[in-house]
Every structure is written in structure tokens, then in C-alpha cells.
Amino acid sequence: MSFASYNLWLPWQDSGSELAKKFVDYESGIHWNQYQMQSGRTSINTNRIYNPIKQVKDHDPKGEFIKKWVPELKNIADNFIHEPWLLSKFNIEEYIKLDYIAPIVEITKTSREARKKIQLATQQKGYWDISKKIYKKHGSRKKIATNRIPKKIIDKKQIQYELNLGL
């Protein structure tokens, strides 16, 4: 989501729909919230622009997942598994035989541009007021103090209803 939203500037809804088709454990109640959060649409969390190369190196250092699910890379040397296009700088014949596409964007450049765009957006008049309003409505995790409920309310169901509404 981060890559699609920040590096490619694709609409998060379109990317979310494509991802929903691919997840074997898809759950709309979980995934759509995550899509929005990872694409910076909630104003609740810090916008995170993930580097997919760093992520795969951190989470699959030996490239086992890659070799299993990307068959054209199953025989590539471990030192190129995370960035197979770099093989072209060392052995062009081997890279050509690999038949693997080069990156569609330069991650460092598009991430830097995305950070600039986000910074400009946060400097727009009214941005932080809108952000705070959204956070207050959807993101605050503060518990409602039950001692603030007026004494005249006796019905437990009514109390629970008002607590759930954040009254």
C-alpha cells in the first residue's frame, strides 16, 4: 500500500481492491482500515513511506520467500536476490538470461518526492485542524470516565450505549 500510494501515487481504493483479490486471508473489516492507514488517509497515524527493498531484506534476508514465489529468481545468487537488476552491472549476459524486469521507479527518488508532497500538504491552511478533528473522532484511545456520567442515568444498557458513543 505504501509503495502504491506514495511511490506510484495510485488511488488507495484501486490498490486496495487489487490487494483484496490476492490475500488468502482477506477480511474487509481489517484490511480496508490498514489500506487507509498505510496510504496516509486516516490522519491518525504517522505517514510511513516504506522502502520495499529494505523491508524484504529485513523480513526475508535469505530470499526464501522470493525464491519460492518468483520462479524466475529461484536460481539467482543470494547477493542479488533482493535487487536482481544489479546483476546487470556485473554480468549482463546472466542478467539477460534471467528475463526479469528492472524497477519501474527509483525508490529513493520517489520516496523523497513523496515526503516533500506530504510536507507541503501538512503546511496547507486548516490541515492540522482537520487532522485533529479526525483523530479526536476516530483515533483517540482515551477511556471514557464513568464518573462523568450524570447520576440521573440508572439504566446500565443506556450507560453502555452512551459509553460506546463516546458521550
TrEMBL record:
Keywords, comma-separated and alphabetical: FAD, Flavoprotein, Lyase
GO molecular function: deoxyribodipyrimidine photo-lyase activity; DNA binding; FAD binding
Cofactor annotation: FAD
Coiled-coil positions: none
Domain annotation Cryptochrome/DNA photolyase FAD-binding: ranges: 2-118
Pfam families listed in its UniProt record: FAD_binding_7 (PF03441)
Listed EC numbers: 4.1.99.3
InterPro entries registered for this protein in UniProt: Crypto/Photolyase_FAD-like_sf, Cryptochr/Photolyase_FAD-bd, Cryptochrome/DNA_photolyase_1
PANTHER family, per database record: CRYPTOCHROME, CRYPTOCHROME CIRCADIAN CLOCK 5 ISOFORM X1
Name of the featured protein: Deoxyribodipyrimidine photolyase
The organism of origin for this protein: Prochlorococcus marinus str. MIT 9116
